[in-house]
């Protein structure tokens, strides 16, 4: 009887710890996927991850608050943004002996704490209906020692305040995150500013003293530069000033509407609302022009608001971190391609650096007035010569000025010579600069000309870390030469299928898969014209010195305007990577690249071709066709047998399963069922989860399993 009572008592304790309540008491702890849930069900507190990882590929976990009733995961507050947790199983949220709320690692190390001056150790933590997490006395709910509303991250909720408290010295401001998945604080902030003259305004700041937007002074009913907040039936903004301090708050009239204000990673202050039955957030912004945000595109870039906000590198510069740009973090900007000789002059004699004129721009900030310019960049008008020596920020495409940018002679030359002259220059420069290049020769007038035009028209106008760079080209008669950057580690197929190739570990294979997806996504959705590669296969994936993949060989590539959804083209030779619609002869879309990519993913997993000469049958199933094995293994929950034996089992099983699922999505028979390459990137970065998918009908027919589902 005593034993049964102990078992029941233990069972009730476990239920008490893991039930979704709104309060955490001294005898409880929050671990794993446990959460506190506000009494109205709108908000949840617990541990979550955004898809970001540490350098050793371990996940980052954050303690935070999010909207529980919104199907699209949306966090509103993060406790440990600067100190993410690697191992979820080793951490827990508890109330410490001094009454503070703490996150403990391995029972002893404090990863985060409220650090409140509590007057009692009998406290509780409660998640309120407005999304505010409060630490209060267990016996007196009005005695609050700490609250999350006093320490906002990048988000303000209805009922929270932005401003200051004179008695405590507390300043509440919003600070942007590093990017869309990394919760580290970054450069932009949104705060209340005031002075002794009584002028109070809302400002947007950059790092941390450069103001780039102001609401104007409070005039009693509204801030001067945002009068539209008056008379709104759904949104109101209010300012309060007392001896204790000053603050602003916003309110939404409709109680069924969820809302949040956020200092976005782009530097835009946005108000987002979620209406009942919505599929996504509706966004309202204070700044109409993205280019008006200080350093919006980072250094050595040009911002253009027409037709839509975009960032591009200055001539002679390349994106410093394409991965960061994909996450909307452009603070790194662009880096110079060729170092300066540092002996430049206006005339540009000999090897001296030269100046390249940029017309119709708005000039960057922080100019100095000098007599003559010799380095960096300059602009001249009747008022004299203005010069910039450091990073160039805030150049906009619209304007009436000419900016002269200092470039190495080789960079400046490329804008004044034809392509044939350029290729000769590159070849000669490679005998003097010891730069290794790869030269591709296309023979035959008819076919060679076709491939030549396809490669030049595609690779000649694109630039991405996962696409091979076309350095130059020349043509004479029926001879065509293309000069590319040299890839020391050869092509992917040599490492996957050849016995003398290097065995790529799983981490490298996963990064290669992600890199190919990034490059393909750029071709499909980020170029002025949509580019379909039409020949994605391991032989056309080149690897640089650090095994970064670069999609190559654009001889089959097709370009078409974005208002066209299909293009007609002839079939290529490598049939094992062909999508069904291409085989049937119908017009194709970018989804044919998605299909080919899915087949390549399967070969990255197995380290062998998807089909082989050896054939075996088991229960009527053709086992030689690897996609069938993948589909069956996902159904049976046994993916370990799919992985290349040369890896000796040293793989991340979760990533293997994710790649298998993505591959099966990509090779769906119907093109509309396949994801876009942008969605594939999100899947592989763990930003989005891969849902349940049907087995492709072709594989169903081969496997003899109709209506199968891959979980």
From TrEMBL:
Residues 21-148 form the Bulb-type lectin domain. It is found in: Membrane. GO terms for cellular component: membrane. Residues 1-19 form the signal peptide. The keyword Transcription regulation does not apply. The keyword Cell cycle does not apply. InterPro entries: Bulb-type_lectin_dom, Bulb-type_lectin_dom_sf, Kinase-like_dom_sf, Prot_kinase_dom, S_locus_glycoprot_dom, Ser/Thr_kinase_AS, SRK-like_kinase. Its EC number is 2.7.11.1. It is a single-pass type I membrane protein. It catalyses: L-seryl-[protein] + ATP = O-phospho-L-seryl-[protein] + ADP + H(+); L-threonyl-[protein] + ATP = O-phospho-L-threonyl-[protein] + ADP + H(+). Its main location: membrane. It comes from the Eukaryota. Keywords: ATP-binding, Disulfide bond, EGF-like domain, Glycoprotein, Kinase, Membrane, Nucleotide-binding, Receptor, Serine/threonine-protein kinase, Signal, Transferase, Transmembrane, Transmembrane helix. One of its GO terms (molecular function) is ATP binding. One of its GO terms (biological process) is recognition of pollen. Belongs to the protein kinase superfamily. Ser/Thr protein kinase family. This is Receptor-like serine/threonine-protein kinase.
